[in-house]
Amino acid sequence: MYEKSLIIFKPDAVQRQLTGRILQRFEDAGIKIHALNLQNADRAQAESHYDEHKDKPFFSMVVDYICSGPVLVVVFGGLGCISKIRSMVGATEPAEALPGTIRGDFAHQVMIKGGDDPLYNLIHASAHAEDAEREIKIWFA
Asked: Among 10-14, 90-94, 137-141, where is mean pLDDT lowest?
């Protein structure tokens, strides 16, 4: 089934100039770019995006982080692209991401579980079609 997915290149990916190399990986996998926007996230967008985590202790840290610098927000599309993208991105915790995945190859700072350091894991990828639809509305209103 043809799907759309939202990807956010977080401030660490933008700052480290990894966006081009990572975009190329998705395109090489046959995933098409539908929309692309470099922007500074405002707090309302970030809070809405991470709303499912609002009661968790790391919520404000994640919101602060996503607002700390420019993000590149991309809508991708393709057959079965959500699972393909998530597989390419790798585990949320960079230390658990396999070599060959985006996080396994490029992420370099990990959060100690329960720690106070932000999780610099480069990229957000929609988990499900419903998430993608909601997230696209937040970032491409």
From this structure: 90-94
